[in-house]
Amino acid sequence: MKLYSSPATPFGRKAAIVAHEHGIALDVVNVNPFESDELERLNPIRVIPVLVLDDGTVLYDSHVICAHLDGAGGGPTLYPEAGRLDWQRRATLGTALTETSVLWLFQKRIPAEEQSEKLKRHYIARFKRIAAALEAEVDAFAAAPFRINHIAVIWGLGHIEFRHDDTWRASCPKLAAWYESMQSRPSVAATVPTD
Ligand SMILES: N[C@@H](CCC(=O)N[C@@H](CS)C(=O)NCC(=O)O)C(=O)O
Question: How is the chain split into domains, by residue range?
Fold first, then answer.
């Protein structure tokens, strides 16, 4: 299977973590989503990740790719029936961390005269609310078996630290301790984002 991704993308990282958890070796093709014609031919949305199966079937977006890899892999499912409503809600919070981080990053990358301080404040406030909600229930999800919601929170916080800062740690000490403890997990350590 071929994964179109990049070393910096949080959504591609999610797919790479799921593949690693299941012992699936992917043939990774790094592309720039803003420039790649090949990516556009595969995915009209022209965003990464894209997974091309051995029979040529093309999958996107990351949610679809991760669910497929989970079904194809040999490890325990990351999408169990037990506790579904809880882990789905927490996975939504983790995904929202990433989406917020990317929107915030785009605001910082456009020319200074086009940037909106109001939008930046809006994204930072949303990030802080999500982090506070996770801090309030970290004891519960830290005790649960490793699932897609843990991956979602790790890749969300990872992108915040990669592109913004780690000041959230001071106001969310329990979440920070759990996040730190996850860094040595092989699938997490093997997928640290880089430029
Ligand atoms: N909902 C999509 C989001 C994918 C996404 O936004 N990928 C970014 C990279 S982190 C991208 O390719 N951006 C290119 C662009 O916005 O043109 C998913 O979960 O796969």
Answer: 2-72, 84-189
Locate 113 and state its tokens.
């005269």
The tokens for 138 are 């970290």
Closest residue by Cα to atom 5, ligand 1, is 47
Atom of ligand 1 minimally distant from the CA of 6: 9
Task: Give, for ligand 1, the residue of 42, 47, 110 to mutate: max count of ligand atoms closer than 8 Å to Cβ.
Answer: 47
- Please give the distance, rounded to the nearest whole angstrom, from the Cα atom of residue 176 to the centre of ligand 1: 26
From the CB of residue 69, how many other CB atoms can be counted at a distance below 10 Å?
A: 26
Q: What is the CATH number of domain 84-189?
A: 1.20.1050.10
Indicate the top mutation candidate among 3, 11, 110 to test ligand 1's pocket, ranked by most ligand atoms within 8 A of CB: 11
* 2-72: CATH topology: Glutaredoxin (3.40.30)
CA of 26 to the centre of ligand 1 (A): 19
Please indicate, yes or no, whether the overall pTM of this predicted structure exceeds 0.90: yes
pLDDT in tens, 63-118: 999 999 999 988 899 999 999 999 999 999 999 999 999 999 999 999 999 999 99
Residues forming beta bridges with residue 77, ordered by sequence position: none
Question: In sequence order, what are the residues at sequence separation of 6 or more whose Cβ sits closer than 8 angstroms to the Cβ of residue 188?
Answer: 17, 154, 182
Question: Residues 47, 33: contact at Cβ < 8 Å?
Answer: yes
